[in-house]
Amino acid sequence: xxxxxxxxxxxxxxxxxxxxxxxxxxxxxxxxxxxxxxxxxxxxxxxxxxxxxxxxxxxxxxxxxxxxxxxxxxxxxxxxxxxxxxxxxxxxxxxxxxxxxxxxxxxxxxxxxxxxxxxxxxxxxxxxxxxxxxxxxxxxxxxxxxxxxxxxxxxxxxxxxxxxxxxxxxxxxxxxxxxxxxxxxxxxxxxxxxxxxxxxxxxxxxx
Amino acid sequence: xxxxxxxxxxxxxxxxxxxxxxxxxxxxxxxxxxxxxxxxxxxxxxxxxxxxxxxxxxxxxxxxxxxxxxxxxxxxxxxxxxxxxxxxxxxxxxxxxxxxxxxxxxxxxxxxxxxxxxxxxxxxxxxxxxxxxxxxxxxxxxxxxxxxxxxxxxxxxxxxxxxxxxxxxxxxxxxxxxxxxxxxxxxxxxxxxxxxx
Lengths: 207, 197
Known about the structure:
The complex is a heterodimer. Chain A is mainly alpha-helical. In chain A, 66% of the residues lie in helices and 5% in strands. Chain B is an alpha+beta fold. At the A-B interface, helix 5 and helix 6 of A face helix 1 of B.
């Protein structure tokens, strides 16, 4: 039993990491990853919603009637999204402004609804917690990696913080002769770099 | 029939619990968000409008009762005389409300500056009301005796291209600020007398 909980957690981190393996939830993946900071912030916000909605849906899975389950899931998810939005505006306002409309859009993020429908509504609380945490953290590192690559190529630097807890600031990593490639931080660049990362992921065999 | 009732009950209970907890969250986060907006959005906008003032308008703010609501008033001191007040106002834009700060020079009743603080307008079109300094600059120095309107409506403000509704809303917000200024003028005069040297 313990082993399966651990495997529910780790599958989200590598085998089923949403943007790369499942190619799901691409709207925020392409939209907010102009910098590593925004990517990680968005990922953590999604993780919180995913974790809370998974736990609640799993707790209520025997109460929610099958015919209105999607409506119930949406109410639960939307509630947690507003909680995240309000908290982010109260404590991390600059990040809130950077992410803008993508925070309310977590409601319609197919990963969150997908985990509620496909996993949490059929499994116990412990498994659902592990699943939500794993998929959420997988989403976070994927967004962070994509954001880091785009920020590096697009600006030549990495700079930011996560809710003021961890700071990083690397200026001109490629030396002063590096010419920032602005294409990488624009929308078309997001597609190209996501494609290259997908390609790199597929070169590493999943077990 | 039993299933029907269960569906209704479950959905109702879920909605009530969700609505209740959200209103609690709003109460908890509201003042903190207001604080953040003051420090990071309104504060810089007001300071840049009144950059030549002798005092810090954000520090020297006070509240005035206007009917049931309390308004924040920011005061700018120029050459030792407190003659500029900044009013906040809103108007409905293309999407949601547009929040503005409007600086009025009380000595000659002209606008010293206007700035958009909060909005949800379309990026690249309506959002230019905040990002394009030339648009807001049209209001500078204009007398507040006549209401503001875009050229299409017979006024003097040239609208942002592709964003007439936003431009109209900005004019409306400025007019709202002016009318509440006129209404509160006696109280403002009294409050301000003490300021400056």
